[in-house]
Amino acid sequence: MKKMVELSNVTQAYLEEYERILKKMMQRMTYITITCSISDNFIKQMIPHHIAGIKMSENILRYTTNLGVQCLAQNIIAEQKESIEYMEAIQNRCCIVQNSEYEVYDYMCAFKEIAEVMFHEMCSAPISNSINVNFIREMIPHHQGAVRMAQNALRFCICQELIPILQSIINTQCKQIELMFKLLEGLSDC
User: Fold this and answer.
1) Calpha distance 41→168 (Å, rounded)
2) SS3 of 179, please?
3) Which run of H or E residues covers position 51?
4) CATH number of the domain that residue 84 is part of
5) Pick from 121, 126, 127, 134: which is nearest to 6 by CA?
6) Sign of the C-alpha dihedral, residues 26, 31, 36, 39?
7) Fewer Cβ in 10 A, N or C end of the chain?
8) How does DSSP assign 71-94, residue by residue?
């Protein structure tokens, strides 16, 4: 990660933890056993994505005093914990819904493209001495990736119990992306 400015100890500590969480998310999302169930594959890919969103939000909450950022981080934690619980509860039933080899291939090709863009944008988010700005710049591509991943899965025949979870991911994370852009406008880069 490039350092454009002299970073405070707090910013360095925040960024070191962020990088650790990001690396773990990338590994856990990439190295899964692919099955003939797009529903199962999606759940196995999205759970580590959500866990990272929770950990990144907990990381910013250790340092921020900005009320808007605190509220955003707390909402991300609550919503993504709930989503994980739902996905874990239905995973054994959803893995029964099978797809053709071609559908799984098509799904995975799109997933890899979405993940690569998200990983690149999260790794190369501009760094400043404002941890609040850093958090939002990192979380926007994280959320955009989740929305695209959910939209990708919805193109296929998937477990009916998973569909409302995907729709919720799209709705809540699109609203949070809008909020993040508004918050970013009001934050200083230093």
Assistant:
1) 18
2) helix
3) helix 38-61
4) 1.20.1260.10
5) 127
6) negative
7) C
8) HHHHHHHHHHHHHHHHHHHHHHHH
Residue 178 belongs to domain spanning: 15-183
pLDDT per residue rounded down to tens, the chain (190 residues): 444 568 999 999 999 999 999 999 999 999 999 999 999 999 999 999 999 999 999 999 999 999 999 999 999 999 999 999 999 999 999 999 999 999 999 999 999 999 999 999 999 999 999 999 999 999 999 999 999 999 999 999 999 999 999 999 999 999 999 999 999 998 876 5
Buried residues in 5-15 as b, exposed as e (16+ CB within 10 A): eebeeebeebb
Give residue 47's identity as a one-letter amino acid code.
I
Instruction: Name the nearest CA neighbour of 114 among 24, 52, 54, 26.
Output: 26
Handedness of CA 109, 142, 32, 168 (dihedral sign): negative
Question: Could you tell me where the DSSP H helices lie in 62-159?
Answer: 67-94, 101-123, 131-153
Tokens of 154: 């919805």
- Number of domains forming the structure of the chain: 1
131/65 Cα distance (integer angstroms): 10
* 126 DSSP 8-state letter: P
- H helix or E strand, kind and range, residue 163: helix 163-185
